[in-house]
Structures are given as C-alpha cells and as structure tokens.
Amino acid sequence: MGMCLPCLGGAADDVVVTPDPDARRRQLAEAAEKRQKETTYRGVKNPEAVERKKKKQEEMEKQEMTGSVSGGGGGGGGLRWQVG
C-alpha cells in the first residue's frame, strides 16, 4: 500500500494548465487556417508555384480589364489588324 502514495504525489505535476481564452482563440484560429491551407493544396506537389501562377493570372486579367477600358473607341477590344 505504501507504493501508491508516491504516485499520487506526482499527479499534480501532470496537470495541464489551460491557456487563457485569448491564447486559446488564437491557437484555434491558427489551427483552422492550417487545416484550410492543407485542404486547399491537397494533392498539389508545389503549392508555391500554384500561388505564383494564380497571382500572375489575376494580374493578366487586371491588365486586360484596364487595357480594354482605356482602349477607347477602337471597338476591337485591343485587337488590331496589321497588313504587311
């Protein structure tokens, strides 16, 4: 019976202290963000390349939109015929 008493004395050291609500909220937000990224890039070998390609595509679309607006009265949307 004397063997169990040292085990009970060490039980207080094993207690995990829960963080304050703000820290817990931050941890949960970080975990959710990480899960979302993992889900987004599931099956993708190089997620950085995918991001670069996506940003480049968005820039191209943005340039097309600004180019067609500033193109004005050509009526062709930026396309020009060249006779050569």
UniProtKB/TrEMBL annotation:
Q: Which Pfam families does the annotation name?
A: SVIP
Biased-composition ranges for Gly residues?
69-84
Is Kinase found in the keyword set?
no
Renumbered to this chain, the Basic and acidic residues biased-composition regions fall at 22-40, 48-64
Q: Where is this region: Disordered?
A: 22-84
What domain of life does the native source organism fall in?
Answer: Eukaryota
Which keywords label this protein?
Lipoprotein, Myristate, Palmitate
Looking at the keywords, is Lipoprotein present? yes
Q: Which residues form a coiled coil?
A: none
**What is the name of the protein in this document?**
Small VCP/p97-interacting protein
User: What species is this protein from?
Assistant: Pagothenia borchgrevinki (Bald rockcod)
